Amino acid sequence: MTPTYDLNKIKFATDEATFRRAVGLYESGKVTEVEGLGGYYSAVVLGTKPYRVSVSGRNYKHGHCTCYLGQKDTLCKHMIALALYAVMDGRPLSDKDRQLFHHVECSRWLIFWLNCFYVWRRS
Question: Which of 6, 53, 64, 72 has the most beta carbons within 10 angstroms of its beta carbon?
């Protein structure tokens, strides 16, 4: 099973503190017993204690964790760590992978179309 999201989507929509903690869990091998079944990933993430975690393969924000935040339906570092595992398939993160986006970059096509729209509106 391959998730429909990628690392960039996770990085773009996750705050820095949560992302860094999730990377730490992922890189230290704390995401264990990973299984993919029925469109969901499940795992045991070893934090303060072992947490049962699941995330959807369609949207990593849809899932559950037995930690304090997860029980309140809040996206937690354990869920992000599992999503990282799903996207990376257990492979190591590069230095670039660990960097969060500090600004949004537009594609050349988007810039082109925005410029065309601007010129059209002015005429």
Answer: 53
Q: What is the pTM of this model?
A: 0.80
In terms of phi and psi (left: phi > 0; alpha: psi -120 to 50; beta: otherwise), the region of 90 is: left
User: Residue 62 phi/psi, 5° resolution?
Assistant: -95, 110
How far apart CA 94 and CA 44 sit, in angstroms, is 24
Task: Flag whether 37 is in a domain.
Answer: yes
Q: Is 105 inside a domain boundary?
A: yes
| pLDDT tens string 51-60 | 999 999 999 9
Instruction: Count the domains in the chain.
Output: 1
Contact 86, 3 (CB under 8 A): yes
